[in-house]
Amino acid sequence: MPGTARFIGASEKNNGITDMCDLEPMFDSHCLTVPYNGSVGFAFYQDRPFCASDDVQVLIPKEEVTGWALLFVATIIRVEKTRFSYGYKWNMARMKKTTIRLPADASGEPDWAYMDSIMRGLPFSAAVASRIGDVRNMDEEEQASLTV
């Protein structure tokens, strides 16, 4: 019988979930997971607490950022994955040296509001909102239920 906690492994499918386990979650929700082994660079937003294998780097935001903005960052991280492979792993040392180019505001800081608005404006955003518990109104909820 599978457990209730998500186990995130080095997978490019199913939001990185490779199994369900009976362990107490090791990480809180609202972060990104990026495998450096196996399916290197397939970044996913985690909306629930989870456990992770050693093959996965967990990226926890240092400041308040919406789930939508983190989905944007996950997409940008996936662009970088082509530079790495099983033989040239994207380990933490290499991740720290990697520059991820994000939209910036006038002061040069990441423009989280802009990234949030881009992701919310995508045609499938209502379906995503229903899955991450961020449906804002009944119209979005109805649209999400029609597209899932």
Describe this protein with a few key phrases.
disordered C terminus; 5 helices; three-stranded antiparallel β-sheet; three-stranded mixed β-sheet; 16% strand; globular; 31% helix; 148 residues; alpha+beta
Helix-strand layout with pairing:
Elements: E1 5-8, E2 17-21, E3 31-35, E4 44-46, E5 50-52, E6 56-59, H1 67-80, H2 92-97, H3 112-120, H4 125-131, H5 138-147
Parallel strand pairs: 1-5
Antiparallel strand pairs: 1-2, 3-4, 3-6
Helix pairs in contact: 1-3, 4-5
Describe this structure in words.
Helices cover 31% and strands 16% of the residues. With 148 residues, the protein is an alpha+beta fold. The relative contact order is 0.14. A 3-stranded mixed beta sheet has the order 2-1-5, with no helix packed on it. It has a 3-stranded antiparallel beta sheet with strand order 4-3-6. It starts with a strand and ends with a helix. It contains 5 helices and 6 strands, in the order ββββββααααα.
Q: What's the short story on this structure?
A:
By secondary structure, the chain is an alpha+beta fold. It has helices spanning 67-80, 92-97, 112-120, 125-131, 138-147, and strands spanning 5-8, 17-21, 31-35, 44-46, 50-52, 56-59.
Low-confidence stretches: 143-148
Total number of helices? 5
What topology, given as strand order, has the largest sheet? Answer: 2-1-5
Binned strand content = 15-25%
Total beta strand runs? 6
**Amino-to-carboxy terminus distance:** 27 Å
Average pLDDT works out at 84
The gyration radius over C-alpha positions equals 16 Å
Order of helices and strands: EEEEEEHHHHH
Structural class computed from helices and strand pairing: alpha+beta
Helix share, percent:
25-40%
Tell me, briefly, the overall form.
globular
* Largest sheet properties: 3 strands, mixed
